[in-house]
Automatic annotation (TrEMBL):
<dbReference type="InterPro" id="IPR011711">
    <property type="entry name" value="GntR_C"/>
</dbReference>
<dbReference type="Pfam" id="PF07729">
    <property type="entry name" value="FCD"/>
</dbReference>
<protein>
    <submittedName>
        <fullName>GntR family transcriptional regulator</fullName>
    </submittedName>
</protein>
<feature type="domain" description="HTH gntR-type">
    <location>
        <begin position="6"/>
        <end position="74"/>
    </location>
</feature>
<dbReference type="InterPro" id="IPR000524">
    <property type="entry name" value="Tscrpt_reg_HTH_GntR"/>
</dbReference>
<dbReference type="InterPro" id="IPR036388">
    <property type="entry name" value="WH-like_DNA-bd_sf"/>
</dbReference>
<dbReference type="InterPro" id="IPR008920">
    <property type="entry name" value="TF_FadR/GntR_C"/>
</dbReference>
<dbReference type="Pfam" id="PF00392">
    <property type="entry name" value="GntR"/>
</dbReference>
<keyword id="KW-0238">DNA-binding</keyword>
<dbReference type="InterPro" id="IPR036390">
    <property type="entry name" value="WH_DNA-bd_sf"/>
</dbReference>
<keyword id="KW-0805">Transcription regulation</keyword>
<keyword id="KW-0804">Transcription</keyword>
């Protein structure tokens, strides 16, 4: 199934999201609707939609009716992963209690797509499957408000994945397969412990990438 084409507002939000998360713009940069409309050659409507979305995601803040960028930095990354672990731990516990064997079979199909991505060397396909894998916990929790709480942060984590180096897809696939096998035993405590390890490693890698971006000399020193 092909992904739904992004609307203009979503496209603009994606472009700005990448710039904010990768350090393409400085923290506290004023985002004026007129200037952005001219830059992207669109009316102010799509720009307004994009900025509203980024404000929801915490990447833009409103100061006296003027919008400014909020670059995450290392502290912001720490906060994001703390929030994600709290949300996802609850999602896993509820999913284990409520999902059926057939539901987990469908999650297995996602892991199978990861494996296929490794065989093809398709990083984008793997990243998409990785996001589907984790989002499945929220869906299977059957808790609408929990799903809504996760939704604003999905795009941010997609970009954070793209910022990292090309993953070892076979190893990452094996990690997700092991994660799913623990979940299927029904041991929620073990699954949450595995999530903590999974996210701790991911967070550490992103922090390393951000440090190298902030000080490229670090990368040279490590070679």
């Amino acid at each position: 199934m092909n992904a739904r084409p992004l609307g203009m507002g979503e496209q603009i939000a994606h472009r700005l999201r990448v710039e904010i998360l990768t350090g393409g713009v400085e923290d506290g940069t004023h985002l004026a609707e007129d200037a952005l409309a001219a830059r992207f050659d669109v009316s102010r409507g799509p720009v307004r939609d994009a900025l509203r979305q980024l404000e929801t995601e915490g990447l833009v803040e409103n100061r006296r009716k003027r919008l400014y960028t909020r670059v995450l930095g290392l502290e912001g990354i720490e906060e994001l992963y703390e929030l994600r672990e709290a949300l996802e731990s609850l999602a896993i516990r509820l999913a284990i209690a409520r999902a059926s064997a057939k539901d987990w079979d469908r999650v297995q199909e996602i892991v199978d797509r990861m494996r296929a991505a490794g065989e093809l060397g398709d990083v984008e396909m793997f990243a998409d499957a990785d996001m589907q894998f984790h989002t499945a916990f929220y869906t299977l929790s059957r808790n609408r408000r929990l799903i809504e709480a996760w939704r604003p942060y999905q795009h941010t984590f997609e970009i954070l994945f793209e910022m990292s180096d090309t993953p070892d897809i076979p190893a990452a696939t094996a990690d997700h397969q092991g994660f799913l096998e623990i979940i299927r035993t029904g041991d929620a405590d073990a699954a949450v412990r595995r999530l903590h390890l999974h996210l701790t490693l991911a967070k550490g890698h992103i922090r390393d990438v951000l440090r190298k971006t902030a000080d490229p000399s670090d990368a040279v020193a490590e070679d």
